[in-house]
Specification:
This protein has helices at 32-37, 165-168; strands at 2-5, 12-15, 18-21, 24-27, 47-54, 58-64, 71-77, 79-86, 97-103, 109-112, 116-122, 126-133, 142-144. With 185 residues, the chain is mostly beta strands.
C-alpha cells in the first residue's frame, strides 16, 4: 500500500495493495494498523456511507462546521472526479483545492481531513461511492461552497452538472462569513 501526499497538507491519496487473479481481486479498504504504519493519520471512524449517482451528477462542495468530518472515500463501481477544498480560516492553503479521479479500476482512496469541503462529479454511467467518516452527519451543521465558485476555479471535467436544489443555492467561499467556516489549528 502507498500513501501519497498531495499539494494540500493533510489530503492524501491511498493506493491499497490489490491481490488479483483470473477470478477477480481482493483488497483491504481499511486496516488501522496497516494504514497508520504506511503514514495515514490515526483516526476513528464512526459512520460509513454509500451513495449511488448517475453520470453528470455533481455533489458538493459540502462541509460540517461544529462536527467536521474527516472522510476516507472510494469508488466501488464506476468513476468520479473527487475534490477537496481547504476552507479553514487562517490556513496557508485557504481556498486551494485538489482533484483526483477515483475509479473501480484504480482502487484509489482519498482522505479529506476535517475542515475541508468535499465534492465529486460522476464520470461513468453510474458510480457507487463509499465514505468512512470520523463524525456523524448533523444536517443542521452542514454548509457548502458553490461548485463553480470563480475565485476557487475548480477545473471540473463537466460543464453542465446535475445539482440538487440545495447545492444550486450554495454561496461562493468569499460570501461565507468567517465564523461559519472551520478554523486552521
Amino acid at each position: 500500500m502507498k500513501v501519497i501526499e498531495t499539494v494540500l497538507p493533510g489530503v492524501l491519496i491511498v493506493e491499497p495493495k490489490v491481490f488479483g487473479d483470473p477470478r477477480g481481486f481482493f483488497l483491504e479498504t481499511w486496516n488501522c494498523d496497516r494504514y497508520e504504519a504506511a503514514g495515514f493519520p490515526e483516526v476513528r471512524f464512526v459512520q460509513d456511507n454509500h451513495s449511488r449517482s448517475r453520470q453528470g451528477i455533481l455533489r458538493g462542495l459540502h462541509f460540517q462546521l461544529h462536527h467536521p468530518q474527516g472522510k476516507l472515500v472510494q469508488v466501488v463501481t464506476g468513476a468520479v472526479f473527487d475534490v477537496a477544498l481547504d476552507i479553514r480560516v487562517g490556513s496557508p492553503t485557504f481556498g486551494c483545492w485538489v482533484g483526483y479521479e477515483l475509479s473501480e479500476e484504480n482502487h484509489r482512496q482519498m482522505w479529506i481531513p476535517p475542515g475541508f469541503a468535499h465534492g465529486f462529479c460522476v464520470l461513468s454511467a453510474i458510480a457507487d461511492f463509499t465514505y468512512k467518516c470520523t463524525d456523524l452527519y448533523f444536517p443542521a451543521e452542514e454548509g457548502g461552497v458553490i461548485w463553480n465558485d470563480p475565485e476557487i476555479g475548480v477545473d471540473w471535467p463537466i460543464q453542465q452538472p446535475v445539482l440538487s436544489a440545495k447545492d444550486q443555492l450554495l454561496a461562493s467561499l468569499s460570501q461565507i462569513p468567517a465564523d461559519r467556516l472551520p478554523k486552521f489549528a
